Structure formats: C-alpha cells, structure tokens
Amino acid sequence: MRKSLGIIACLSAFAVAGCAVSKERVTLLAPAQSGKDIGGVVIEYDDGRMGYLGDVSQQAKLRSGKAAHLVRQYDEADPQYANFGNDFPSEPVREYFYFAVGKDTLAPSELDRLQAWLNQNIQGRPGLEIEIAAHTDVSGGVELNTKLAEKRAAAVRAQVEERIKAGQITVDKDDIDELPGSLWWAQSIIDSGQDYVARDYRVAVVTIR
C-alpha cells in the first residue's frame, strides 16, 4: 500500500468514533449494508491518499473535489486489519467487596468472589494498574476506622498479589495502589441526608485499569 492513511476501518457497528494518523482523520461508521456486521468504503486517490466513507453514494467527493478511482465495499473484515484496535487500552473495571462489622479480612464467600473477579479481569491486560480503596462505616470513631481501613486495604492487596503471582502475570508493585480511607465517605452520605446503609461502606473498592 502506498504512503497513506495507514488505517482502513473495518469494524463492527459502533456509534461513531474517530482516530487520527498524521493529520488525517478516520471516522468509523455503522455497516453500509443492512444486516451486515461490518461495512465500509475505502477511497484511494491518485496522489496516494486514502479516505474512508460509510456510504458508496458519497464516494465522488471527499477532499477538495477530488474524485476517487477505486472504491471497495467491505462486507467482512479485511484480514490485514482484523486485529485493528486490539492494542487499545481496555475499559477500567470496578467491583465492591464487603467486610463484616469490625473485620479487616474478607469472609470466605467474599474472598471467593474476589478471586473469581480477578480471574476474569486481570488476564489480557498488559500494563494493568490496580487501585484498592478501603472504607468503613461510621461506628467506632475516626482513629479506629482509619486503622481498620488500612488493614482492609492491605488484606485485599495481599489477595490481589497472591492471585497475580499464581497466574504468572507481571505487575509492578508500584502499579498496585492502596488508598485506605476511614469513615469519611459514610459520614458524607449521612451529612447529605442520603439513605445510609452501614454495610455499603464496610467495603474495599477494587479498580483495574
């Protein structure tokens, strides 16, 4: 292929997305044909430049009135671009794991849920980062709850590191962050007049990016 845009969009129906190479812009559109999972039009210009359109009827003019001399309609992914987008970062995922009153370790059922969630979400994420934010309810005072939140964050981190090690996944320790809180989150809910359920704040919130 000549010096060109370098990306031919052959993706399943997304709403509308854009990506740019050099100074060009590519717009990914819904399928050009009804009932097709994938569609697209590639326009190749005499000067080697290329453009992508989602409708054959628009092919005559894309840039400065230049007419295209080659139009190809795709009804399935071009193998050359089948893996396009695979290296894009995955969307962050987040889950909540709950503690019993005054406890700094997860109950077996919550521990099983954490393990299953990690198994599902840490694979296939090169360069992942993990954030563990631990909280408490409002009972017991600030000092007690601050220490309890620290212990909860440390306990969940230990479980995360154990799973990563068992899965032979390379994650730098600096990419696992503990953010122990205290009772402040729960207190802010009470102060704002929102419904307060103590269990909801005896929690570690784990986010994988």
Write up what this structure looks like:
This protein is an alpha+beta fold and 209 residues long. The protein folds into 2 domains: 17-81, no CATH class; 93-208, OmpA-like domain (60s Ribosomal Protein L30, Chain: A, 2-Layer Sandwich). 22% of the residues lie in helices and 22% in strands. It contains 3 helices and 9 strands. It has helices at residues 108-121, 142-166, 184-191, and strands at 17-21, 24-28, 40-44, 50-53, 70-74, 93-98, 130-134, 176-180, 203-208. Strands 6-9-7-8 form a 4-stranded mixed beta sheet. It has a 3-stranded antiparallel beta sheet with strand order 4-3-5, with no helix packed on it. The longest helix is centred in the last third of the chain and has 25 residues, at 142-166. It starts with 16 loop residues before the first strand and ends with a strand. Residues 1-30 and 59-64 have low confidence and may be disordered. This is OmpA-like domain-containing protein.
Major sheet summary line: 4 strands, mixed
Order of helices and strands: EEEEEEHEHEHE
Low-pLDDT segments: 1-30, 59-64
The second-level CATH architecture of the largest domain is 2-Layer Sandwich
> What is the CATH class of the largest domain?
Alpha Beta
Helical stretch tally = 3
How many individual β-strands?
9
Give average pLDDT, whole number.
74
Strand neighbour order, sheet with most strands: 6-9-7-8
Task: Give the % helix.
Answer: 10-25%
Radius of gyration: 25 Å
The CATH superfamily of the largest domain is: OmpA-like domain
The end-to-end span amounts to 35 Å
What would you call the shape?
elongated
Report the structural category: alpha+beta
CATH topology of the largest domain: 60s Ribosomal Protein L30, Chain: A
Pfam family, one: OmpA
Domain OmpA-like: 98-169
Organism: Erythrobacter longus
Protein name: OmpA-like domain-containing protein
